[in-house]
Structures are given as C-alpha cells and as structure tokens.
TrEMBL record:
One of its GO terms (molecular function) is protein-disulfide reductase activity. The gene is Chchd4. GO terms for cellular component: mitochondrial intermembrane space. Keywords: Disulfide bond, Mitochondrion, Oxidoreductase, Protein transport, Redox-active center, Translocation, Transport. One of its GO terms (biological process) is protein import into mitochondrial intermembrane space. This is MIA40 protein. Residues 22-31 have a biased composition (Acidic residues). It comes from the Eukaryota. InterPro entries: CHCH, CHCHD4. Residues 1-15 have a biased composition (Basic and acidic residues). Residues 1-32, 95-129 are annotated as: Disordered. It is found in: Mitochondrion intermembrane space.
Length: 129
C-alpha cells in the first residue's frame, strides 16, 4: 500500500548526512504572515488553521472559510450557510479526525436539566411539609 519500510544499517548511520538545510527565506510570502496575507488573501498554510485546510474535508473548509472571509453581508457569513453545512456533513463522516463536541454538550445539557428537575422537586417537598 501507501507505506514503505526502509531498514538502515549501522554503516548508514555512521556516514555523515548529505542533507542540506535551507535557510529561511525572508521573502517567503507565507512565512510568519498569520492567517491573512498582506494582500488580504487567506494564508491556507497558516499553522493557526490546525491542518483544517487539508485532509478529507479541506475543500469544504476552504469553501466555507473563504465565503465567510469575503462575505459582505450585514451579518457576516450569513450568506455561507450552505458551505458550512457541507463542511459539517463532511466532518461527520470522519469522527476520528473531527471529534464532535455536540455529544458532550448534549450530555451536560441533560445533566443540567436533571439537576434542575431535582432542585425543583426538593423545593416542592420543602414547601409542602
């Protein structure tokens, strides 16, 4: 398949490396620019995106994020619902790569509802005695 195993001998490790390190290019337009480049474009290579722009849902992420970034609507991004829905649907297909927080939120909401009901019942008991 996609993986390849390479065995290194003791001799391989004794030979000095011939790899050349490339010095940082101060003119590299993506180096240390942050999320938005000086020309206003999105820097898809920004580490701040946490790899979201690549992977199985990278294109959906780029579409949704671009729509939001360039949105001129009064409520920014309100014209991007379809793109964000497509991104979410894609991410739901890969729960190991994109963990859903909804499950935890739903559980904590149920816990809060249960605690609230218990507190109400306790108040009623105190009031009726």
């Amino acid at each position: 398949g996609k993986d390849r195993i390479i065995f290194a001998t003791k001799e391989d490790h004794e030979t000095p490396s011939s790899a050349e390190l490339v010095a940082d290019d101060p003119d590299d337009p993506y180096e240390e620019q942050g999320l938005i480049l000086p020309n206003g474009d999105i820097n898809w290579n920004c580490p701040c995106l946490g790899g979201m722009a690549s992977g199985p849902c990278g294109e959906q992420f780029k579409s949704a994020f671009s729509c939001f970034h360039y949105s001129k609507e009064e409520i920014k991004g309100s014209d991007c619902v379809d793109q964000f829905r497509a991104m979410q649907e894609c991410m739901q297909k890969y729960p190991d790569l994109y963990p859903q927080e909804d499950e935890n939120d739903e559980k904590s909401t149920k816990d809060l509802e249960a605690a609230s009901m218990e507190a109400s019942a306790a108040k009623e008991e105190k009031g009726s005695s």
